[in-house]
Design goal:
hydrolase; NUDIX_hydrolase-like_dom_sf; NUDIX_hydrolase_CS; 8 strands; alpha+beta; two-stranded antiparallel ribbon
Length: about 90
Amino acid sequence: MEKRNILVTLECFVHKDGKYLMLHRNADKRIMPGVWMAPGGKREFNEGLFEAARREVLEETGLVIKNLRIKVAANAYMKDIDQEVFFH
C-alpha cells in the first residue's frame, strides 16, 4: 500500500452584521504568504471538526464561536508540501 501524507484543515468564515472576519497572513509564511483568508488551521489528531474550528478561531482571534455549520468540504494535492489536503 502506498503511504500518503494527508492533512485536514479548516477555514472558519466568521459572519456578523453583514461582515466577514478576514486575517492577513505574514509575508514570510511558506504557504500562501501575504494572503487574506478566514481564520483556520490544522485539525489535531482525534479532534472533531467543530472542536477544531472553535479552537482555531479562539487561538487566532480570541473570539468564542457559538453557531457553527459546515458549508463546504474539498480536497487538493499541494505539490509544494507534498501532501493531500482536505479543506472543510
